[in-house]
Design a protein that fits this description.
With about 300 residues, the chain is mainly α. It has one domain. The protein is about 75% helix and about 0% strand. The chain has 14 helices and no strands. Helix 1 runs antiparallel to helix 2 (about 45-60), helix 2 packs antiparallel against helix 3 and helix 3 (about 70-90) runs antiparallel to helix 5. The model has no long low-confidence stretch (mean pLDDT about 90).
């Protein structure tokens, strides 16, 4: 038991050492680093990624085989975590700070694609099995549970999901956010966490109960977020007004007009966002059918 605990702390120490080395490289040699290294190193993003993956694989090794998620769910979770890391902690982040359409692509990943894949992984039990025991009471603490209940309330979840998208894209808020690193980080974290909470509510593979909401309500929430995204994407992709003058300050790395940049960003909000909603609807219907088959198989004969 003592040996296992010592190995765990050694592993955490190794993660901190790797993070420290990356921090030093990014701090003193930023121009010499390859594209896949961070443009601006973030300890929270690094720790969230590495600890999530470490606890995930540790949890998989601890759970009995019959309690582990399907292989495709495990792959979805890992891909989702890596996708978020790729847009937040590589030179994609530099491009996002200098091109509107790249930034919209990065935000689509953290708010839609990455969060969707993480939620599809249904890895909560695996992560809990892999976490240190002293952290488990924090998860079940009343303030944490009340926060989750609020964010996943069916009347609140779609408002938060769309509200944050519109809020961070309001021009008078977007400009200071792109110029202030702290606000920039707040935007990324709120979008990522909100995406995970929302898609976890929608893609919960269990029937209701124990899932929070029914299949019909999930379908209604998907429809509720789809139209506002389409409207926002259409406005930005068809407008003749440049709403985001911040890139006149930051400069653009690609030879592209401001309107073309904005139009491509609007299309990213419009089309991939709509496709994500379609994919969610399909996933909900498939889960409904699987749960019905399980219930039918469990019903006593006659």
């Amino acid at each position: 038991m003592i040996g296992r605990a010592a190995n765990s702390w050694l592993a955490y120490g190794a993660l901190l050492a790797v993070g420290g080395a990356i921090y030093v490289l990014c701090r003193f040699f930023p121009a010499d680093l390859p594209f896949w290294m961070p443009w601006e190193f973030s300890w929270p993003a690094f720790l969230a990624t590495t600890l999530a993956l470490a606890w995930f694989f540790r949890g998989l090794s601890r759970l009995p085989e019959q309690d582990r998620p399907a292989l495709w769910r495990n792959a979805a979770f890992v891909l989702g975590v890596l996708a978020d890391y790729a847009v937040l902690q590589t030179h994609v982040d530099y491009l996002a700070q200098h091109m509107f359409f790249v930034h919209r692509g990065a935000q689509f990943v953290v708010h839609h694609l990455g969060a969707f894949l993480i939620a599809l992984g249904a890895s909560g039990p695996v992560l809990r099995a892999g976490m240190p025991e002293f952290l488990l009471p924090l998860i079940y603490a009343r303030p944490v549970q009340r926060t989750v209940d609020f964010m996943q309330h069916p009347a609140v979840a779609p408002v938060l999901f769309i509200g944050l998208l519109y809020f961070w894209l309001y021009p008078d808020i977007y400009t200071p956010t792109m110029l202030d690193r702290n606000l920039y980080d707040v935007m990324n974290w709120t979008m990522a966490l909100n995406g995970i909470f929302f898609w976890s509510l929608i893609l919960d593979p269990r029937p209701c109960p124990p899932a929070r909401i029914s299949t019909l309500l999930r379908a209604m929430l998907i429809i509720a977020i789809e139209l506002p995204q389409m409207v926002l994407g259409a406005i930005l992709s068809l407008s003749s007004v440049d709403y985001y003058r911040v890139y006149e300050i930051c400069g653009r790395v690609f030879d592209m007009t401001a309107l073309n940049d904005q139009h491509y960003g609007g299309l990213i909000i419009w089309l991939p966002g709509t496709l994500t909603s379609f994919a969610a609807m399909i996933a909900v219907l498939v889960a409904l059918r699987i749960n019905e088959e399980k219930a039918e198989a469990a019903r006593p004969p006659g």
